[in-house]
Automatic annotation (TrEMBL):
This is CREG1 protein. Residues 1-22 form the signal peptide. Keywords: Glycoprotein, Secreted, Signal. Belongs to the CREG family.
Length: 195
């Protein structure tokens, strides 16, 4: 009976409370990256500051994001953002579009449920490097659906702020989801799997 209980506890540890899907095993780093991004509603975007007094210094800021509507297997893997030129980090991106984006399961119930500190590798987080680009007209509908399905408040944000849809163009991916250090995932590996 005790062995059955341990097996049940181990199986339960593999379930993510937020999304209802099973968290990928550590040996599937590309799937883990897709899974974490899809289950996160926001991330920390780091730019190189173009602001007076901070020029050239790293500058991190929180942004809402989405790779698609909630639900299993509905994510595209593309981090979409809703931006305005009035935002300080967007002003940085106008000078240098390179950035990094970090997303973590710490923002979901998963890590608290398992009593994982956000810095614990078992509380998986993903670091993306790349650049921010405005989406073209053919992709704007997809970005809008992805973002407004998770962040409905966005639709009512002031129109005079000239909001636009953008995406994080991924060039490098690092996954920290287990002990032993970061795992490198190529964009090709990342986009070839489902979360």
């Amino acid at each position: 009976m005790a062995r059955l209980r341990l097996l049940c506890l181990a199986a339960a540890a593999l379930l993510l409370a937020a999304g209802g899907g099973a968290i990928p095993p550590p040996e599937e780093a590309a799937r883990m990256a897709r899974f974490v991004l899809h289950n996160c509603d926001w991330g920390a975007l780091a730019t190189l500051s173009a602001q007076e007094g901070l020029r050239g210094q790293p500058f991190a800021n929180i942004f809402s994001l989405s790779d698609g509507p909630p639900g299993p297997l509905s994510g595209s893997g593309v981090p979409y953002l809703y931006l305005t030129d009035m935002e300080i980090s967007v002003q940085d991106l106008e000078i240098n579009s390179n950035a990094s984006l970090t997303v973590s399961l710490a923002q979901t119930p998963y890590c608290k449920k398992h009593k994982y500190d956000p810095q614990n590798p078992l509380c998986a987080h993903i670091i993306f490097c790349g650049s921010i680009v405005k989406v073209n007209d053919s992709e704007a509908g997809l970005a809008k659906k992805a973002l407004f399905s998770r962040h409905p408040e966005m639709e009512s944000w002031p129109k005079d702020h000239n909001w636009f849809f953008a995406k994080f163009n991924i060039t490098n991916i690092w996954v920290l989801d287990y002990f032993g250090g970061l795992k490198i995932v190529t964009p090709e590996e990342y986009y070839s799997v489902k979360p």
